[in-house]
Amino acid sequence: MTKTGGESFLVLNVGSSTLKFGVFGFAGDDAVFQGVVEHAGPNADQLRITDRSGRTELSQLSPGSESLVGKVLRFLDARGMLAKIQAVGHRLVHGGPAMREPVRVDASVRTLLDQLVPLAPDHLPAELFAIDEVSRLRPLIEQIACFDTAFHSSLPTVARIFGIPRDLSESGVVRYGFHGLSYEYVTSTLRARGELPLRTIVAHLGNGASTCAVLDGVSIDTSMGMTPSGGFVMSTRSGDLDPGVLLYLMRARGFTREQLEEVTDGRGGLLGISGISGDVRELLLASATNEAARDAIDAFCYQMRKFIGAYAVVLGGLDALVFTGGIGEHSAIIRASICKGLQFLGVTLDAELNIDDAPLISSASSRVVVRTLHTREDVMIARHIRALRASRGRS
Question: Using an 8 Å Cβ cutoff, are 319 and 325 in contact?
């Protein structure tokens, strides 16, 4: 097992049933190692560790009685690495109106984070539990929260506000946007390479999906709204929905709040349209013979094209289109379908490069540069930890 030679950071990214983690040093963006703990059954968890190249170094089952965070810390301790961890960085989905940059988690911040749970009830409780577990098991380790909403704090008022009474907007009922750590990584990476033009649209396409209009590296509009449910249709999320639909379901159908959440977040989206699956890979396989599966794929690509067209207007033109996330990076069919309707903007793909998931997939004649880029939210969190600690003279 690879060992660090000095101080290092632990990055935790909490999912619904998984905990991804990575250990980073002060120099460079390569993780010393990375891994994931996930539920393998009612009484067991699966721990997988990979090296820098992605090769599996360890894969083992462990009893399910201990928290996922506890398993990671115990793993590090057993290999003599925990003592070198100087800070733990967490990805938090929502920062609310106040949290606009990475912040050290002290007692007052932790109290404020509890108040944000209603904004992301499906995400924040598990993320805050991870913070509390680190505090319980290793109370002296510094913890830093990095927010997916922070990148979009630059949104202008016209893009941020909804058409609701002003007092509600002023109380925090506004567009926040999400996937910010991913967008920040993509834009900073392209800028470092000299490949970030003035007008860029980034599409983060995965189970959760969104897109962002980036003007000279700054977010000026994004598809998700006050919560990660907004925007275009996703795996199980409805995306933007006429509010009258929810009112109708409440009044005429007697839907409860829990049932409405199921419609919009649990059984909506691609799963709802197809009745089969929310997984794009399964829907593509089924689409040859299943009309509902085709409808789901077509709706996903159609709505994505609409946002790209709208954001080209917002940006005053389009210089680059970047695909990231699991679908964006690996589904040539989805990328081709989205771009097929964008020729009027100057988007033309090179079919062979697209099939190969090449970093540059636009044709030589395309007026718009089209790229794929593997996103690394964990790397972005590690960068924030270094910057925050260096600013306080702890580098």
Answer: no
Which position among 51, 77, 148, 356 bears the catalytic label? 148
The count of structural domains within the chain is 2
pLDDT tens for 329-360 read 999 999 999 999 899 999 999 999 999 999 99
Q: Which strand (E) or helix (H) includes residue 291?
A: helix 291-315
The pTM assigned to this predicted structure is: 0.93
One domain, residues 94 and 215: no
298 located within any domain: yes
**Percent of the chain as helix, strand, coil, to the nearest 5:** 40, 20, 35
Q: CATH number for the domain including 20?
A: 3.30.420.40
Same domain, 142 and 204: no
Q: Are 311 and 200 in contact (CB under 8 A)?
A: no
d(CA 47, CA 41): 13
Neighbours of 394 (CB within 10 A): 12
Edge-to-edge strands, sheet with 85-92: 56-63, 44-50, 31-41, 18-25, 8-14, 85-92, 142-147, 103-104
Same domain, 142 and 211: no
pLDDT for 207-233, tens place per residue? 999 999 999 999 999 999 999 999 999
Same domain, 220 and 330: yes
Q: Is the pLDDT of residue 3 over 50?
A: no
pLDDT at res. 1: 39
- Domain co-membership, 136 together with 235: no
Per-position DSSP letters for 39-74, written without gaps between them? EEETTEEEEEEE-TTS-EEEEEEEETTS-HHHHHHH
**pLDDT tens digit string along 162-184?**
999 999 999 999 999 999 999 99
Please indicate, yes or no, whether residues 206 and 339 belong to a single structural domain of this protein: yes
Query: Could you list the residue range(s) of the whole structural domain that residue 48 is in?
Result: 8-147
Active site residue 295: no
Q: What are the Cα distances from residue 82, in Å, to 5, 25, 365?
A: 12, 13, 53
The answer as to whether 234 is a domain residue is: yes
Q: How many residues does the chain have?
A: 395
